Amino acid sequence: MADSGKNVIATAGTIAVMHGNVEARPFAWDKLWPGQIPDAPVTAVTVPDNTLTLEGHALHLVEVGHTDTEQTSVVHVPDLGLVVAGDALYNGAHMYLGESAGGGLDAWRQAISTVEALAPRYVVAGHKNEDLDDDATRVIAGTRRYLDDAEASLEQCSSATEFFHTMVDRHPDLPYGRTLLWVGAKTLYALREPGADPVAAAVGSWF
Predict the structure, then answer these.
(1) What is the CATH classification number for the domain harbouring 67?
(2) What are the CA-CA distances from residue 51 to residues 2, 14, 64, 118, 157 (Å)?
(3) What integer pLDDT is reported at residue 2 of this predicted model?
(4) Is residue 181 in some structural domain?
(5) Which parts of the chain register pLDDT below 70?
(6) Which string of b and e fits 190-204 if b means at least 16 CB within 10 Å?
(7) In a domain, 150, yes or no
(8) What confidence tens digit (pLDDT) does each residue in 131-169 have?
(9) Domain range for residue 140?
């Protein structure tokens, strides 16, 4: 987000991920989209107490840790009972789980609890079925249920294809995000191979 001084504002954790993505460009993003991404230096800065003021109202940037990637954050607007959740919560869409190996699902659950403790009435998710409302209780419960189903399916399924179809069958009401589900499934099962390279698994899953 940007402040009135035209600065790009982010948390320290998010800025660290930005730098990491710049470093990863030659191995990931430039391979996926060769010649299509312009130079993008990191210019974001932090603000004191991770708080902005907009028209007299406080906007708090809250770091929640690992969700569908590392060092994620949400924006909390207490006066509106609102959390702008980015990818910490999904609303009516399949979820990207490719970075959830090795305890990532439990970390994501903790992030959800952090958001829930803010007591929002509304949650705006980054991945959303536009036909659904933003009721916080429903969005939080749906995200938790999907993670629980994913964990059970990972224990039961022996291949990415089986996992993908199992999750689609468990959530027939989700019309969006099947590409993310498939890419994440391929990554998770590639990482089960002996000596798997995490970067190669993640990048290769997009092709």
Answers:
(1) 3.60.15
(2) 12, 15, 15, 15, 44
(3) 53
(4) yes
(5) 1-5
(6) bbeeeeeeeeebbbe
(7) yes
(8) 999 999 999 999 999 999 999 999 999 999 999 999 999
(9) 12-204
